[in-house]
Amino acid sequence: MLNFTFQNPTHIHFGEGQISVLAKEVPLNARVLLVYGGGSIKKNGVYQQVIAALNEHTFFEFSGIEPNPTYDTLMKAQDIIKRENIDYILAVGGGSVVDGAKFIAAAALYEGDDAWDILAKQQAVTKALPIGAVLTLPATGSESNGNSVVTRDGNKLPFSSPLVRPLFAVLDPSVTLSLSDRQISNGVVDAFIHTIEQYLTYSVNGKVQDRFSEGLLQTLIEEGPKALLPATKENLEVRANIMWSATMALNGLIGAGVPQDWSTHMIGHELTGAFGIDHARTLSIVLPAVMKVRKEQKREKLLQYASRVWQITEGDEDTRIEQAIRLTEEFFQQMQVPTRLSDVNLGSKDIDLLIERLEQHGMTALGEKSDITLAISREILTKAL
Ligand code: NZQ
Ligand code: ZN
Asked: Which of 165, 258, 320, 335 has the fewest Cβ atoms surrounding its Cβ within 10 A?
């Protein structure tokens, strides 16, 4: 196992009705900016629950954070922050809103000339406003990690700082019942691939991390499809298991002390930036190709994945690996997400642009051993055609 330091200080309040804890979790003397997206929270009653819990607080609102939040939208929040002396951000929404809140919180106290440098030049965040989160879409793990992804002019860039990790997160599985099938699918697949990116590398004998990861993968394989079937889609236990899996997949626990890959995500971000494809749908296209192209480098872990996650024990090594990749693709198809570039009407002519963008963004040495060059990314994208 590799050395690591692990701390996840986000207080989690899990279960139905937990939004009421906002009354106590948000300090009474705070000047709060409630940030949210395009209005789903007003249709499903989440907004009303939040307002009721904050009835003794002083708060202001900033809405309109879009999926794949943009720098231009997020910077608009700075006016109200200055004007109203905001000192606390409450994010209510999916990963985009929580990620957006993180950038807003860091930009508000940024001392350099241009807050875009936090993303473009990876300038360190030294101060940020405190953040609380009410999560409405299980997927990203953003509610209890320090990561954020922001887009500007087709450039989708990540930054990370422990200072923007939410202090608390409310996870009420019942608020996910208003999600469309597409958003539920996206969430399950995103969480699945977060787990894979921290698991499918090379073995360092991290038995606890491996078995936690395998448990999360199996849970998502079991519960994900149930959230799409009419007979089980409203089942709150299904929703609860998906929600907790998604948080656990990217809260730092399973990735502590083990190598991590993230090449699928970095290539996927270019697909979203250039062509607007949903985050999770870029991942379901790229991952099977990464598994195929990196079969030799990932051989030992692919065999472990085949046997422990998919119970494949018969046949020679290559057959077992091929079967595991096929079952992974079938799982994605069952979750109604694409597995090929051609499924989203992209072809070989589009690969040059993606490679150019990867180069522009410094994504030239990806993977657990930083040995996925641009030429290998091209091979991966070609395999995904
Ligand atoms: O904007 P509203 O009206 O709220 O609608 C949203 C949005 O249209 C809707 N929605 C959310 N909760 C709902 C709901 N609709 C009905 N009922 C509910 N309960 O869903 C749509 C998509 O929301 P979004 O927040 O964009 O989805 P998601 O949570 O998948 O977040 C995706 C973003 O997170 C980034 C992605 O790159 C992408 O920008 N990621 C963040 C990560 C992190 N912070 O660690 C890691 C991930 O790998 C990922 O990169
Ligand atoms: Zn993701």
From this structure: 320
Determine which residue's CA is closest to atom 46 belonging to ligand 1. Answer: 140
Ligand 1 atom closest to the Cα of residue 41 is 4
Q: What is the Cα Rg of the chain in Å?
A: 20
186's tokens: 């996206």
Pocket of ligand 1 (CB under 6 A): 37-41, 44, 67-68, 93-97, 99, 136-137, 139-142, 145, 147-149, 175-176, 178-179, 183, 186-187, 190, 250, 265, 279
> What average pLDDT does range 2-18 have in this prediction?
97
> Ligand 1 atom 15: the closest Cα is on which residue?
179
- Res 154: pLDDT: 86
* Three-state DSSP string of 103-172: HHHHHHCCCCCCCCHHHHCCCCCCCCCCEEEEECCCCCCHHHCCEEEEEECCEEEEEECHHHCCCEEEEC
**Cα angle value 181/186/188 (rounded, 5°):** 95
- Ligand 1: residue of 10, 65, 96, 284 to mutate (most ligand atoms within 8 A of CB) is 96
Query: Relative to the CA of 44, which ligand 1 atom is closest?
Result: 17
Nearest ligand by distance to the CA of 192: 2
pLDDT at 63 over 90: yes
Average pLDDT estimate for 220-236: 98
Give the pairing type, strands 88-93 and 131-135: parallel
Atom of ligand 1 nearest to the CA of 158: 50
Domains (range + CATH), the chain:
11-174 (3.40.50.1970), 181-383 (1.20.1090.10)
pTM > 0.70: yes or no: yes
User: Distance, CA 27 to ligand 2 centroid (Å)?
Assistant: 31
Calculate how far, in angstroms, residue 97's C-alpha sits from the geometric centre of ligand 2: 14
| pLDDT, mean over the chain | 97
